[in-house]
Design goal:
alpha/beta; 4 helices
Length: 138
């Protein structure tokens, strides 16, 4: 298991670069953490490190899935699955098309689609430490 510690928001770009360097060709990432742990913030930084324009990244809470274009032409998919409340709703999203596209898929609240996650999904845990820093372990 690899862990990256963020002591402040100033550490975010470097932590995202470290994370991208450790992706090693894997594309499906399930981010776990309590509400307010920083899942969206970290995913936005990772998306930027992958080449998405920072102004294009946001929380996909209302759209469920956001697609961020990158200079390389490979999109980054950011899922916020918080509002998914049934297997049928999850299937209606066309998850397989995203998961097997070869593009990075970064998911918040993956617990809501656990049964549909591919076996090679990388689980990323964002923990809030006592000093309010964050530890990202995967």
């Amino acid at each position: 298991m690899t862990c990256i510690t963020l002591r402040s928001l100033a550490d975010l770009p470097e932590a995202a670069r470290q994370f991208v360097g450790a992706m090693a060709g894997r594309t499906i990432f399930a981010f776990h953490g309590q509400m307010g742990a920083g899942k969206t913030t970290f995913i936005n930084a990772v998306s930027a490190a992958l080449g998405a324009h920072p102004d294009d990244t946001a929380s996909p809470t209302f759209a469920i899935i956001n697609e961020y274009p990158t200079a390389s032409g490979t999109p980054v998919y950011h899922f916020d699955l918080y509002r998914i409340d049934s297997p049928e709703q999850a299937l209606d999203l066309g998850l397989d098309d995203y998961f097997y596209s070869g593009a990075p898929c970064l998911m918040e609240w993956p617990e809501n689609i656990e049964e549909f996650l591919p076996e090679d999904t990388v689980h990323v845990h964002i923990n809030v430490l006592d000093d309010d820093s964050r530890q990202i372990c995967f």
